[in-house]
Amino acid sequence: MNDGPGAFGFPHKHLLGIEGLNPIEITALLDRAESYVEQNRQADKKKAVLSGRTIINLFFEDSTRTRTSFELAGKRLGGDVINMSVATSSVKKGETLIDTAMTLNAMHPDVLVVRHPDSGSVKLLSEKVNCAVINAGDGQHEHPTQALLDALTIRRRMGKIQGLRVAICGDILHSRVARSNIHLLTTMGARVRLIAPRTLIPTGIEHMGVEVFNDMREGLEDCDIVMMLRLQKERMDGNYLPSVREFFHFFGLDYAKLEGAKPNALIMHPGPMNRGVEIDSEVADDFGRSAIHEQVEMGVAVRMAALEILTANLEEHLQRNL
Amino acid sequence: MALKADRTPGRVAYVGARLLDPATGMDEVGGVLTEGELIKQIGPKVNADLALEGVTVIDCEGLCLAPGLIDMRVHLGEPGEDYKETLASAGRAATKGGITSMVCLPNTDPVIDDMSVVEFVARRARLQGLSKVYPYGAVTKGLGGKEIAELGLLAESGAVAFTDGFSAVANAQVMRRAMMYARTFDLLICQHPEEPSLATGGAMNAGETATRLGLVGIPREAEIMMIERDIRLVELTGGKLHIAHVSTADSVDVIRKAKARGLTVTCDTSPPYFALNEVAIGDYRTFAKLSPPLRSEADRQAVVDGIKDGTIDCIASDHTPQDEESKRLPFGAAASGGVGLETLLSVTLELYHNGHVPLLDALKFVTSAPADLLKLRAGKLVQGRPADLILFDPDKGWKIEADKLLSKSKNTPFDGRLVQGTVTRTVIDGRTVFVAD
Predict the structure, then answer these.
(1) CA distance A294 to B214
(2) Within 13 Å, how many C-alpha atoms sit on residue B51's CB side?
(3) CA–CA distance, B157 with A238 (Å, rounded to integer)
(4) Which residues partner with B70 through β-bridges?
(5) pLDDT tens digit string along B411-422?
(6) Which of B345, B333, B340, B337 is nearest to B288 (CA)?
(7) What is the pLDDT of residue B103?
């Protein structure tokens, strides 16, 4: 996989996760994405970078935002984008994940963007195809483009990532976003805190270079960035948490709990938000502090960069193998 | 005689007493001055001369003056089973027994799994003006053993610890999550240690006596394995666990070893388990049907040893009122449990009279130890704290007679027992609420 210098200083064939990427590679992706932010704000957003290339968005899990973001990214670069979602695929008819991959592979796509509910499944699929694969979220494992778009948002707002104190709050246990962000932020030199009830803190996470807190006020003390995570309704049935009202009372982000954070602390959320569950509406809509819409904007730029770089690497890769 | 008058206590000096404070080890002659609801001064300087300053002086005549007792495991019938016990009848029984604070189980109807019930119970108890009541919150919603209750909010509204009362949190995953969740807020989970699948249908301790009586036995292992399992869960989660009414030798042993390993485990036992054994069942006496069941003599002795070496932290009455209709039944069908508010002090003092522990240590199990465990502002003689005091004669004997108990239900397993230790006065928040005839 790690063969050749790679386009824009990113040497990998696939983007399967943040774990294992070094600061130079992460910076390469962010720098390239940065260059697309302005283009996306122009009236004419189209480029021909991916002209003639085929991108398949293969989603085994419901998604509107991420899929749309990838679709836009591909189309703005002039590629042909096909969406396949689980409801319409052959998986329901008994075809295995690998069969699906092999079938699609035979159609010669250039990039497969894959989301799947099982951790590790995207890597498994990547081993069976010739094209580049982008992990758009696998189970509770990784969601690398989300971490990259968060990093780009932070870098643009704060001017740096290194040395910042970042709090990630809420359902860490079930969150691939949290895991990718922990890898990225610690790799880039930020100090990461996790704040959640103990039932939502995975065992042994301290070994990933983070500090664990059970109290929002304590954990948010002096933080530059507050990242909230989405809390799924099915976690509130008394297995992990007793109720919505108890969760919001102790862990929902409101101005009172935010007091200890730095005055200009940035508030982030990967969306979609549950207002009144993990975040108070007032805070979510605070134009000066909330970066939530900017995150969505950066998502398209980051995905354009990832598609461009992996496609370029693929050509390099094929030429070497001729 | 229970007193409810005396609403404005002013300044009162209890002089000429033997002051006993297990928290500090104090055992000296002196007095306690109270002002309003609080302790103002403690020591030899509090004497009869204070009468000249307009202080009401009460001569204790050399009796023991100690912090009021904390009973950390009481089943109140109210709300829901008022025909067995009410807050008023429990309060009268408790003050007669020298108990100034009761920690009550959530097995009420409605269950204490909601903030409003915590507040209801606390408010009702305050209106009685007798013993203070601190509620346990339920660990699981409706005591159902499946879904974690709102531990954080319940604690904020006054629940001092969490238990499912008479039933164990049986499912290991639920217990694991409950302990992890409780750790979030540094809360204590208190477990009734009994594996239900081994205990269901059982009426008494499994063994020869059960076999001779033809009763279905509950094996000791039902208790031991639940304790062993929960200790593993303490290791897994880092949570704090308290094991209620330990009754077997192996239970004590397992907890002793867990404590030696530095785990956050504590436990209590109840007077029946160090003062009685399964022989008390005799000819199918349902008053001796308890949960956990009375065990063998070897178990009883091991519980005493656990008290002596500090493995057992607290003693609680496990007060469980059952009306006649629940007890006047064939043994297998009768309800479990015994009343204990009025006998807690006297039976605990048997440990002292039998030479097992010094007097101050015996008191510690029912005063400062539960206060420390549950973080209550009680159980110690401290200046500025609420004046919850008792005067008692540790030697004066009496006979426990079920019919004479103040509890609405009379089901004591100690009926007919001769004991020593008589409370002569109980003071709560500076007010005398009980004086012996």
Answers:
(1) 76
(2) 8
(3) 19
(4) B101
(5) 999 999 999 999
(6) B337
(7) 97
For residues B154 and B117, is the Cβ–Cβ distance under 8 A? no
Reference B364, options B23, B17, B18; nearest CA is: B23
Interface contact A242-B149, CB threshold 8 A: yes
Residue (of A297, A228, A231, A292) closest to A261 by Cα position: A228
Give the tokens for residue A15.
């983007």
Q: Give pLDDT < 70 ranges for chain A.
A: 1-5, 87-94, 321-322
DSSP result, A190-251: -EEEEE--GGGS-TTGGGGTEEEES-HHHHHTT-SEEEE----GGGGTTTS-S-HHHHHHHH
Interface touch A237/B180, C-beta < 8 Å? no
| A268 to chain B, closest Cα gap in Å | 24
Average pLDDT taken over every residue of chain B: 96
ipTM: 0.87
Find, in chain A, the residue whose alpha carbon is nearest to that of B115.
A246
The 3-class secondary structure across A125-137, one letter per residue, is: HHCCCCCEEEEEE
Please provide the average confidence, as pLDDT, over all residues in chain A. Answer: 92
* Separation between Cα atoms, residue A309 and residue A212, nearest integer Å: 36
Are the Cβ atoms of B181 and A243 closer than 8 angstroms? no
Distance separating alpha carbons of residues A202 and A206, to the nearest angstrom: 9
β-pairing, B11-21 with A266-268?
A: unpaired
